[in-house]
Every structure is written in structure tokens, then in C-alpha cells.
Amino acid sequence: MRIKITRLKKSIEKYESVVLYGAGNAARLTIKALKEEGIAPAFCIVSEKGAAKKVDGICVFSLNECVSELQKDHIIIIIAVTKLYQKEIEDNLVQKAIWNYIFLADYMGDESSVYRNMTQEEYLKEVAEWYVDRNHLPLDEISSVVQHMQGALKRECDSNKILLIVGNLSPRVIKIAGALQKKGYTVEVLCYLKGWINKVFLKKLEENSDIYLFCNTLEEMMYQLIYSGARIAHVFSNMSISNVVRVLIDGKELFPKIALDQYDIANEMYPFVSQEILDEERYCLENVEGLVCRGFELEYLVNQMGYKISAQMIEFFDYCDDLEIDSEIKKNEDELSLCYAGGLVAENEWKDASYFRLLEYADVCEKNKCHLHVYPSTWTEQGYAKYIALDKESPYFHFHKPVPYENLMEELSRYDYGIGLLFCRALAGKKIDGYYTKEKLIYAACNHFYDYVSVGLPIISAVPIKLSQYFKKQGVLLDWALEDYDFKELKNRRNELRKNVSVVREKLRIDNQISKLINFYDLLTN
């Protein structure tokens, strides 16, 4: 979120003193923006005085303490609160005969809703105003910036340049970027991350790109898109930024062709997601020009739920990393070892769910003298307290802290099998299972299956069902839930299955699959 500071300065320049109504995040953002322009607010006011006496060095007073001062003509009040409270605050001021005020919300950019129903010309003006703000130019420079962008749009695109817009950071992005580079393409990366950020992944992504830029605002990202000259924009998204992707789809005449790559689809797959997020995601799925599918969700959405998907589509999985790591051949007398790498829930969450029942897994493994190694993608001392305690008590349960991706691959290679965590076959007749729907456990995908194969490990998992069927056909997966585990068979077959994995891994290497994606780019742009 950004403040259109040049326009805001224009509105307040005739006043001698600036006062902020509010003491929250919006007020802090405004204070920072004004101070960068050499403007220090006189003070902040709030409806009722709380504990805070200062906000970022600016004194805070109650409205009643300052009425006579605020009625003076030389003071302007910036109402720096969310739209929810604007009307209430405006009424407070009017009742006290205070007339000099403006709403911060009228000077805010980087809101996706701003672009709803805008023309392409209006898009360009918003982007140009961001550029003017960033470079401390006068407002009358907006028209010349628009003209320059229009000139850039007329240039021929670079057929050898692929633009990756990264809104969801995952190993998938890094694999694809590296494989494209090896094929001789110029890979430009625009990171627009509004959630979890993994610094190790970011560093690896930077290494796998020719040009790497971190965009702090939506307008900055659009500016870079306009000037990129790329023939395709491969957008790695997630449900929380569908509103941003929608802006790019609606402004498609200004940008390269878009291939949308959603990491996890929310519609029909998660039961506890706001309708607004679901609607934005569905809009993107039904209106984008190209869809890159890492799972099978669209098969369900189109065939069972009647979604109107008109995009060109490709089924392009996470595939295997180009690693030179092999698991060790085990002797018959060696103890069995299993590993799980990926997301977890705390033990007290979703107790009735059929998956992530880690303590049950640990108990069954210990009874069968089988080691279970777990690598969660995140870490919480409180949420994982029981797992951490069990790691100290049991010689067969090993709960590891998250490790960098390269180190993780090395560690996984030491074990016999990679597993998925399904406790029982409880899908029949069950619409919602924990925070998944039944369809999520059937049609979705998971990256760690490919991690296991990348380091030579066969897989044990019954879900996601469609993905498990795919790997079973390859001869590298046993579609077992926990109650199906036969530890004697696992021990006897580990070396046999590992030989199958070595063959399948070569076939599923990202470098051997990337041509399918490049052909898809050609299909979209020709």
C-alpha cells in the first residue's frame, strides 16, 4: 500500500500546519511518507485518548483537547483511518465546526480495487503517478510519463525473454527459472511477495535469474511489466493475491501474455476461506489467457462444478530438481527409516482429521522398530511441543528443525522412503476433513513427492489420490495409509523400489520436462 504523496502534498500545501486524525498503521504510514518529504505533522488526534502518548515521535491528543486549535483556518486534518471509520470521524469534526479535513483513503494507491473497471489509459495514469511520486517529480509530468510508456508498448517483444512474476515463493519457481536459463532464455524475475518470505529461496531464485527485482507496490510491478519487453509473464500466485492477478488480467492489453500458475487452488478445496478470496480466484481462473496446472483441481472444477474455463491449459507438475544426490543402498539387517518433509499442523489442531496424525505414526513406527524423521516447513515451539518432547523420549522419532533446501535434500537421501501422512482411509462420505474438503485430498498436488524422487526415495502415500495414482503407475509409490503399513515388506522391497526411482527420476527431471512449458508459451504468444 502506498500514499500518492505528490497529490497529497498539493492538497495540503496552502496550510501552515498538518494534523493527523488516527494513531494506527495508516497514521504511521502517513507520518513516514510526510517526513520523507520534509513535512512533520504537528500532532495526532484520536476520538478518545488511550495509553499511547506518541506515534513515531508525534504527540497524540484527544479530539476534545484540541477543538479550538483545529477550528483555525491554517490547519488541515488528514483523516488517516480505514474507510470503515471515516464517516463517524467526519461527523465528529462537523459537529464541532471543524471544516478543514481530507481523507487519506482518497490518496492511496496499490489497492487492487482501485483498478476495477478502469480503462487502459487510466491504468497508465495510475502507474505514471507512482513513477512521479517515486522520483519526486511535479504532477504535470504524469502525461509525459504516460506517453513514454505508450511508446514502450509499441516496441517488439523479446522472444528470448521470459518474465516470472513471483507472488508465491516455492521450490517450483526456482526449478523452472533454472531450467529456462539452461535452455538459453533470459529469465527476468519480479518478486511481489505479501506473505511468507524464505530468504534462502530468494537467494536461490536470484541466482537462477538474469534480472531480479523486488517490487514493493503493484504500480511498480506494472511499470516493470510495461517496459520488460518479455513475450510471456508466468505468474506464480496463491489464493491471497488473486485480487492483484485480476488487475493484470483486466489490463492485459498493457502487459505480456499471462500464464497463471496457482500453487494451491482454494475453490472447492478449502472450506474456511472468505467468499471474497474465492470470487477473486475464480475470476482469474475463468478470465486468464493461460493456466499452468501443478495438480488436478481444474479437472474437478470444470467437469464437476461447471467452471467456465476458456484459457489454454497445460498440466505441468513440480517435477524433480536437477540434483546429483542418491540414497544409499541398505543391507537387509539395517533398520528401516521413513521421512516426511512438508507442512504440519500442531497436535491439538483438527484432531478428527484423517491426516497429519503424527503421534499415531510415531507410535506405530516405534512398535515396529522403524525410524521416523520429520522435517516441518515452519517451526513453532508451542504448537509442536508434543513432537519436540517425543523426539527427546523416543529413539525412533526424530523431529528436525527446518533446514535450507539443499541441506534438506542431502538429509532426505539418507532414509528409505518418503511418506505422506494419512492415518486412515476416511474419505468416503466425508465432505470436510479438517481444513480440507474431500476434493482437496483427491485432486491437489504436493511438492514433496518430487523431492523424495529427486533424492532417490520411493514414496508411501494414499493422498492426494490423483497424484498418488500417477506415481503408482510409475512404479515408485505404495498407496498405503498408516493402517496398511507392512514393515517387513517395506524393509524387503526398499532396494528394489529404489532402482525404479532412479529410472523415473531421470524422466521427471525438470530439465527433461521444461520443453513442454516452452511449447506452451509459444502456443499463447503465436
Folded structure, characterized:
By secondary structure, this protein is of the alpha/beta class. The chain has 20 helices and 23 strands. The strands form 5 sheets. It has a 7-stranded parallel sheet, sandwiched between helices. A 6-stranded mixed sheet has the order 4-5-3-2-6-7, sandwiched between helices. Strands 18-17-16-19-22-23 form a 6-stranded parallel sheet, with helices on both faces. Helix 5 (120-134) crosses helix 6 (142-153), helix 5 crosses helix 9 and helix 7 (171-182) crosses helix 20 (510-525). 42% of the residues are buried. The mean pLDDT is 91.
Biggest sheet, open or closed, and with what strands and sense? 7 strands, parallel
The N- to C-terminal Cα distance equals 36 Å
Q: In one word, what is the shape?
A: globular
The neighbouring-strand order within the major sheet is: 11-10-9-12-13-14-15
The value of Rg in angstroms is: 27 Å
- Count of helix runs: 20
Number of strands: 23
Going by helix content, strand content and strand pairing, the class is alpha/beta
Low-confidence regions: none
Mean pLDDT: 91
Query: Approximately what portion of the residues adopt beta-strand conformation?
Result: 15-25%
Helix proportion range:
40-55%
